[in-house]
Amino acid sequence: MSSVKSGGVVAEETLTELHTQDGSVDLKGNPILRSKRGVWKACSFLVVYEVFERFAFYGISSNLILYLTKKLHQGTVTAANNVTNWNGTIWLAPVIGAYIADAHLGRYWTFLIASLIHVTGMCLLTLSVSVKGLKPPSCTLENVAECKEPSTLQLSVFFTALYMFGVGAGGTKANMIILGADQFDEFYPKEKLQKFSFFNWWMFTIFFGALMGNTFLVYIQDNVGWSLGYGIPTIGLAIAVLVFLAGTPYYRHKLPMGSPFTTTINVLFSALRKWRLPLPTDSQELYELNLEEYSKKGKCKIAPTTTLRFLNKAAIKTDSMSAWMLIPVTQVEETKQMLCLFPIMITSILPSTMVAQVNTLFVKQGTTLDRGLGNFQIPPASLASFVTISMLISVIIYDRFFVRI
Question: For the packed helices 189-212 and 152-181, what is the interaxial angle rounded to 10 degrees?
Answer without folding.
Answer: 160
